[in-house]
């Protein structure tokens, strides 16, 4: 993030009902209404929550711009002190405070689920403001974003497979999926159905039961990361790609839905120097947000939403091509594309 303040506005208020700090950062509305999830998380110092809101809202601007969405970036963070017990009653008050903060921005920003919040919480927020997405299907929303995120990651994988082996079919491709949660398991099922050869891993040993249905081989997460495969698919938490792990990697490419995969930004250059394609996580994982925004904020059909999610394949193919052409990393090509789209916005 730049050292200069480059957000359009940041609202920080003490929630009237919850008495907790509610932070809404609107980074950009150049391309359209700013969007970004509501993070309900514990912080030792509320200013760490502010730093998260600033960083994550800027990330949403880039994510929407590269995905070709007519939206900008924003984020809500409710910074819960470590000593506070977040019971059902307090949670309800928090959601009402968030709804009022979002409503006060008069449509500049819409919120959705993030770490610590769910589609049900969005329904509660939706009782006080229309500027919310990913409500449950029975409440008129698009519901759980994991299936669309998995589908979008599959599209990104196709582009990389094409680049590596001249075919977009994943049949016979060797992949290591690290993390069998909501997205990882769905993605592994799609890959297994297409005949990919899968290694799967998770820190939760109970997930091992899934290997049978997937026809996959179970390995420890560390082994999964450094396995000799075509494509590594990080689908757990962030920060797994460290400077130390880069020399150990034996994959040709890394494409996965996990957020913030790089421990530090310079790892993108190290991967590039090792000849490993790394598709930025915010590009590969955009399916969920593309689906929700297309259906809920832009009132498109499920079919249109699916087509836009599948178009991630073209986005990634174009980025790999641009990276080659300009002798830059795919990460640099993605941020250049985002900047171009923002610069040309009217
Ligand atoms: N759910 C979405 O629509 C969505 C959208 C964009 C990005 N993402 C990102 O994708 C990733 C997965 O999301 P999810 O919704 O499936 O989460 P999840 O919590 O359902 O699943 C995460 C899985 O990773 C496992 N895990 C945690 N640490 C691990 C480790 N060190 N090694 C191996 N496994 C580990 C957990 O046991 C769990 O099974 C997250 O980084 C999330 O931020 C998700």
UniProtKB/TrEMBL annotation:
Residue ranges of every copy of the Glutamate/phenylalanine/leucine/valine/L-tryptophan dehydrogenase C-terminal domain listed in the record: 143-345
GO biological process: amino acid metabolic process
Gene3D superfamilies (UniProt xref): Leucine Dehydrogenase, chain A, domain 1, NAD(P)-binding Rossmann-like Domain
GO molecular function, one term: oxidoreductase activity, acting on the CH-NH2 group of donors, NAD or NADP as acceptor
Active site residues according to the UniProt entry: 75 (proton donor/acceptor)
Domain of life the protein comes from: Bacteria
Annotated NAD(+) binding sites: 179-184
UniProt entry keywords in alphabetical sequence: NAD, Nucleotide-binding, Oxidoreductase
Xref: InterPro entries: Aminoacid_DH-like_N_sf, Glu/Leu/Phe/Val/Trp_DH, Glu/Leu/Phe/Val/Trp_DH_C, Glu/Leu/Phe/Val/Trp_DH_dimer, Glu/Phe/Leu/Val/Trp_DH_bac/arc, NAD(P)-bd_dom_sf
Signal sequence annotation: none
Family to which this protein belongs: Belongs to the Glu/Leu/Phe/Val dehydrogenases family.
Protein name: Glu/Leu/Phe/Val dehydrogenase
Species of provenance: Actinomadura rudentiformis
